[in-house]
Structure prediction request, 227 residues.
Amino acid sequence: AQSVTQLDSQVPVFEEAPVELRCNYSSSVSVYLFWYVQYPNQGLQLLLKYLSGSTLVKGINGFEAEFNKSQTSFHLRKPSVHISDTAEYFCAVSDRNGGFKTIFGAGTRLFVKA
Amino acid sequence: DTGVSQNPRHKITKRGQNVTFRCDPISEHNRLYWYRQTLGQGPEFLTYFQNEAQLEKSRLLSDRFSAERPKGSFSTLEIQRTEQGDSAMYLCASSGSYTDTQYFGPGTRLTVL
Prediction:
């Protein structure tokens, strides 16, 4: 079974500052890793995903994440945030052999202040 | 590609009533997933279909919950004898056979009074 821990429930940050949203996972099998964003009153949207290969993954809206197998982490970063990045961010894992059932973390609320 | 659609978007019901939600996936996608999301939590997996076959069900899915995908296209999720604890956002997602990316619908928000 897999599990996901998002280490911060809320992250306040000033506009144009860098941000890191932390995610750790546990699994006994190989997994795919994802970050999703959920804007207020909207559905989940895929930001980026790690399947294999390069451990640094770039996604939409200037976000990137780095897969660290030894630390079982998949932290999300952005060098300079905008007010419009205010949203809920979810880290997720899926079993490579499990039909892509996805296990989500509890989410991190990113709040960008002017 | 019109995306994943869900109906209704909101449902208010009284405890003990039955409710049914519908999900229309992206047309060429053969995998369909149901999740439940409560306030302040991430989505929790409920069940998933490949074509019309229901391949996995979560332990969260009590016997009051049933999901169907009769022709491998749209799916319905029914909750019988609703309880206040069933109040949540119910999310549907779909994906193609050879892709890992799930596309989510806007969800159906259920409120049980």
Residues 2 and 88 of chain A are 21 Å apart (CA to CA). The interface with chain B takes residues 4, 6, 9, 32, 36, 42-46, 49, 51, 90, 92, 94, 98-107 of chain A (CB under 8 Å). DSSP finds no helices and twelve strands in chain A. The first strand of chain A starts at residue 3 and ends at 6.
